[in-house]
Protein 1
Amino acid sequence: MASANSSPRVSFVLLAILASVILIWFGTGLNPRWPLLWLAPLPVLIVAARGSWRLAACTAFVAWAFGNLNVWHYFSAALHVPLVVRLEIVVFPALIFTLAVLLFRALLRRGAVWSSLLAFPAAWVSFEYLLNLTSPHGTASNLAYSQLKFLPVVQLASVTGPWGISFVVLAFSCALAVGVHLRKSAPVQALRVVGATICVVAAILIFGEVRLALPPPPGHTVKVGLVASDLPANANVASPGVDTERLMHEYAAQAETLASAGVQVIVLPEHLGTVVDPHMAAIDAIFQPLVDKTGATVIVGLGHISTQKKYNQARVYQPSMQVSSYNKHHLLPPYESIFNPGASLLTLPEPDGNWGVAICKDMDFTPLSRQYGNQSVGLLLVPGWDFQMDRLYHGHMAILRGVESGFAIAHAARGGYLTVTDNRGRILAETQSNSAPFATLIAEVPVVHDRTLYLLLGDWFAWLTLAVLAFTLVRLIQPVRRAAVQ
């Protein structure tokens, strides 16, 4: 094994940092351009392979930290996150990225070429998985969401969950860096590494294209309707009493119009108003006669305050049936700290297949969606509320849950998008919630449950990456091969 004859020049290092910063900035964040992330780590990895560990560490940390500043304004202006927390959001991932780069460098320079190829993506995906287990934001920072417009790769989520997508994107850059490093000293091995990686990526793309091309199994189609308003008077949570009742009457009028167009299920946004018991009966009296008259099911998002509990709740009105409800499981701190988390699912058996109900941030977490998938849900109905600025990123995160666990999604978010997707992640219909005083959307969606491998095996790939990471760390402490160059 050989490395470069000399350390990279300062100009080359600065150019590499600049290139990675630009690629990370535009390849991640709230409006990612998916091709850029496939190359974002490459300049840093090339520098790491040629330079000292100190140079590699500095290059990696600076590149990721500055690239990750693309979300600084969002956390500051939209979420009002404290400065200390914002610094953690920037610095901590940069440290993990730096450690992953250093592990790659150490293994490559010790002659463990294939281990170096696996170590870099394994380290990052292990971090993503462990963060998902411990963070109140679940998978929200996962790199897989940068690829949502690249549908053939998105299909990998049906096998590995989001973890496989992050892994293959990072492994691609890593393979190119290994190829560049070995192109002169070991051209055959360089070709093997790059060639094997390209073959794996090609196989994934072929799998994705085939999965997208397969016609859906025989099933039923449901006509769904979504409605949301971003009018200034409706932008915040309506106060208890007259304000909430006024808003509910306005939304009910929109729902009746959709029902008259043949819509079978109507989804309204999350937490439109606050209702204190015993006044929920007045809200139920607005929607229950409507659904009994039209035959359409209506989902309404409300804050429900009783004497003992407070819930961010979705009220479900079905014709000639008692009102049912779903309480949001995953609450956004600190904004929803007043609420108690829900603990149960809500499944609606229908002649055209099972429907399920979730609320907004619930879609940042894979386990809840898998629970619905295991109940053979074919359509998930999701009231939501986004922050305008994150309408694309957070609004589309839910799409991956449908691919992973095999269901279509109808997602109605104020401050965001009205979106209907199928179980392949294809957007069937979409409009912005501010496109009209009351934006509405009608779409035909197939209610077909798909039994995916990820649904059956869960986070098997994440556990595999943890095992791969452990293996590469063991390789790191083994004796250096004689052919390796320090």
Note: The domain at 220-449 is CATH 3.60.110.10 (Nitrilase/N-carbamoyl-D-aminoacid amidohydrolase).
Protein 2
Amino acid sequence: MAEVAIACHDPTRLGRSLRGWRALRRVKQSHAAELLGVTQATVSRWENGQLAPDPDGQRAIRLLLQARLDSAADFELARMVRRSTAPVHLVCDLTHRLLALSAARERYCRVPATELIGTSLWPCASPGIIAAEARLGELGWFEPAAPAVELQTGANDGALIQIQDSRLRWVRFQLSDGSFARLAETLAHGRDA
């Protein structure tokens, strides 16, 4: 299911993200190639934008780069999200895997939060969310100082989560491991929000 979300992201951005991940972790291209099951020349071409990863390469890169809550600061962030009185959740920006959610957000879940953690929320996306996701590149979302994005979600009666028509704010930031997370906060419910 996470592959659906990936279609919204430009595959050539994955190469740049891979280069940033390697630099942060001091991983050589040859080792990244080994981890990804490709040649070092392929990694080089991906990172330089000369070649877009094929679907298998995209999947492998996303798996390698997906957000993890590895540090004390990341765990504290997840704890703050869980304790928030606002309807908020935290997802991996690349795969839409749920990392944490507040009790106010959990009220809209059709399954317990413990079953949702680590699951991609993309299959639950409403048409408004899908449209906003498609515009992120033109809004500067993937730049170093990404702006917050506000959107009207529209309603969706998903199997995992019910989405009410609401005004939502997305904020993108980097976790301690170099991956990116997205904080989603409901600002107001309804079309007039």
Note: The beta strands are 88-92, 98-101, 149-152, 156-157, 162-163, 166-174, 180-189.
